[in-house]
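Lecture 7, part B: from sequences to assemblies.

Below are the input chains for today's worked example.
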Amino acid sequence: MDAYQAYFSSQPTTVIAQDLLGRLLIYDSDQGHFAGYIVETEAYLGVKDSASHAFNHRRTNYSESLYGDPGDLYIYQIRANYCFDVVVQARNEPQGILIRAIEPLANLDQMAKNRHQTGVNLTNGPGKVMQALGIQDRHLDGLPMDQAPLKIDLSQRRQPQKIMVTPRIGVNQDGDSGKDLCRFYVWGNPYVSKSKRRDDDHDHHGWLKKEN
DNA sequence: GAAAAGATGTTCT
DNA sequence: GAACATCTTTTCA
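Predicted structure of the full complex, as structure tokens:
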């Protein structure tokens, strides 16, 4: 197993989800070089998680990638929108981390064209991130991230001032896992989904220091 | 700034 | 036919 796979399988999923906050998401496409800091994640804990696509060992051709190797991509469509997970834990252990929001760093102009929006609306939600990056199909589904154009840079990390923990967004609250505290985000960052502007940290966007 | 409704693909009953 | 790991637009405050 390489170091990339080890990172996504040597700690509990909720710990990895928090460690991903502040890391750089990169996508190289024919639209240019996209980059942004991850500011919001959600952990999905596999067969015992009532909100997971793999609940009760559900396994279909559609969600097969979730059962793949740690560090693989799982790209899926929910209603009219695409989202993506990083697959974590060993092969056949279907856990994943949904990347819900990023703070854009590079290629903001192209993101605005792809989204037909500006400001925080570029990337403050999982479907919005995919639209901003111009990903509107599943051709990257199942690929190992370190060999795909869409990847997370593990060589550096921006340090959040404070990590907030809440129940997940958009999942059925009546399920056994509906109120589990599996959503993590950078306090004060304006790109966190469903956040209120009066809670923003205008000086540092919730990071410990200025731009590296 | 909140709430409601519509668009929409896959899975399960 | 119903539910869903979502987003946009409209309507009302």
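Note for the exam: Helices of chain A lie at 3-7, 13-19, 108-115, 126-133. Keep this in mind when comparing with the next example.
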